[in-house]
């Protein structure tokens, strides 16, 4: 099933969702019944032989004459207590897992709220003025898509393909046209991403090194802090390298994160050679068995050439010490800067081998369409997304959740 069909199915009426919920509950009930049955079978033959009435009677007596209970009955009570403890912890686990799932989805949902509203409002405005599907309509559509940051090439491509599609389907009503637009966007996005690897790669042996690059203010240091927190929570041994020795206060900022999330850091005085910092960090990561080394770098130097040379040097040092490293070179892009982010990415891609994108500040933008442009025009996988400033506000990129968060209002409308 294509992504668009999945989305549409998710909105195809409350009855279906209710049915699915019912099925899930029934399955849980069955599992619980089975468990209870197994536990009863474990009981001694004497106890198992007791009639149901007897059991009821014993329970009533237990409740009324607790103090005089026979040792046997006490055992029963203990057993009961254990069973109910097991039940409580089982139900708690299920509840926790469900709550976690909900919060994860909510996080994406909230983080994309502005984009969804912005995008939805633009498409709705376009459709509000819609009279015929003619040249003007497709010009307006192209403009709307460009404004939503899906990227110029993507906007033109969608508009062109839609002209044929609309004719083919003989789409005339607003909902037919809106349906066709969203379907095209989602399908194109899915098609372009088929070969894409959105996972972060780890070393098979020894420390994994992630190098963070990107212009100033995009969120490199914050992302490192959040990721360090995540890995620390997972029980990994994490080390940070403060290689932004240029900007005043940059070392202190990373140091603060290290303290906040309780991980170690390698730092040298301001203006030291960042290559020397990374050298020390790699050595320490190797000799002290760290699992992950996260390397922060400067976003701005005296000029762009210096910056790119410095990044190349840092990377060379890492590679020399651990040949398969860095496992990831992650380019941080600020989603609120729209097309500017694409230009930055192109520049970095030309000089460094970027392995993935961290798309930050998605919570603060109505321009989530940039994800489509990154995939369709840059062909770089988004691996992480920043959905806020706090240490828990980082998520692995999930294309389906993302597309769902971006288009759900429009798909919901067309599914009605
Ligand atoms: N709302 C929001 N703010 C973010 C996010 N990520 C980072 N920020 C904020 O963006 C600002 C800049 O973040 P930094 O991590 O300092 O950026 P940087 O790339 O290290 O910048 P330089 O060190 O100057 O190169 C800070 O105020 C962060 O709190 C995010 O996902 N959402
Ligand atoms: Mg920084």
TrEMBL record:
It catalyses: GTP + H2O = GDP + phosphate + H(+). Residues 381-394 form the SRP54-type proteins GTP-binding domain. It comes from the Bacteria. Keywords: Cell membrane, Cytoplasm, GTP-binding, Hydrolase, Membrane, Nucleotide-binding, Receptor. GO terms for cellular component: cytoplasm; plasma membrane. InterPro entries: AAA+_ATPase, P-loop_NTPase, Signal_recog_particl_SRP54_hlx, SR_rcpt_FtsY, SRP/SRP_N, SRP54_GTPase_dom, SRP54_N_sf. It is found in: Cell membrane; Cytoplasm. Its EC number is 3.6.5.4. It is a peripheral membrane protein. One of its GO terms (biological process) is SRP-dependent cotranslational protein targeting to membrane. PANTHER family: SIGNAL RECOGNITION PARTICLE RECEPTOR SUBUNIT ALPHA. Involved in targeting and insertion of nascent membrane proteins into the cytoplasmic membrane. Acts as a receptor for the complex formed by the signal recognition particle (SRP) and the ribosome-nascent chain (RNC). This is Signal recognition particle receptor FtsY. It comes from Ligilactobacillus pobuzihii.
């Amino acid at each position: 099933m294509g992504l668009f069909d999945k989305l549409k199915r998710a909105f195809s009426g409350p009855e279906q969702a209710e049915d699915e919920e019912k099925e899930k509950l029934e399955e849980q009930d069955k599992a619980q019944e089975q468990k209870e049955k197994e536990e009863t079978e474990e009981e001694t033959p004497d106890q198992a032989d007791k009639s149901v009435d007897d059991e009821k009677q014993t329970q009533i007596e237990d409740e009324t004459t607790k103090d005089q209970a026979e040792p046997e009955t006490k055992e029963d009570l203990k057993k009961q207590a254990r069973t109910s403890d097991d039940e409580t912890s089982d139900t708690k686990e299920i509840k926790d897992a469900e709550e976690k799932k909900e919060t994860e989805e909510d996080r994406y949902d909230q983080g994309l709220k502005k984009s969804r509203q912005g995008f939805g409002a633009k498409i709705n405005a376009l459709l509000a003025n819609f009279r015929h599907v003619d040249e003007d309509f497709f010009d307006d559509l192209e403009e709307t898509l460009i404004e939503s940051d899906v990227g110029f090439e993507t906007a033109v491509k969608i508009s062109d393909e839609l002209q044929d599609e609309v004719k083919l389907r003989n789409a005339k009503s607003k909902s037919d046209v809106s349906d066709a637009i969203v379907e095209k966007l989602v399908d194109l996005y899915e098609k372009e991403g088929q070969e894409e690897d959105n996972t972060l790669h780890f070393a098979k042996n020894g420390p994994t090194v992630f190098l963070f690059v990107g212009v100033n203010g995009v969120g490199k240091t914050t992302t490192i802090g959040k990721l360090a927190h995540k890995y620390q929570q997972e029980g990994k041994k994490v080390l940070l390298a403060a290689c932004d020795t240029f900007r005043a206060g940059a070392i202190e900022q990373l140091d603060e994160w290290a303290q906040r999330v309780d991980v170690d850091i390698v730092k040298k005085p301001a203006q030291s050679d960042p290559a020397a910092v990374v050298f020390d960090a790699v050595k320490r990561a190797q000799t002290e068995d760290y699992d992950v080394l996260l390397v922060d770098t400067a976003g701005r130097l005296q000029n762009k050439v210096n910056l790119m040379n410095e990044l190349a040097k840092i990377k060379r040092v890492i590679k020399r010490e651990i040949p398969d490293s860095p496992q990831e070179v992650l380019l941080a892009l600020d989603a609120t800067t729209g097309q500017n982010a694409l230009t930055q990415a192109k520049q970095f891609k030309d000089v460094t081998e970027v392995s993935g994108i961290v798309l930050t500040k998605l919570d603060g933008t109505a321009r989530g369409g940039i994800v489509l442009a990154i995939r369709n025009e840059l062909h770089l996988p988004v691996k992480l997304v920043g959905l806020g400033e706090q240490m828990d506000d980082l998520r692995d990129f999930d294309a389906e959740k993302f597309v769902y968060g971006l288009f759900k209002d429009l798909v919901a409308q067309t599914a009605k």
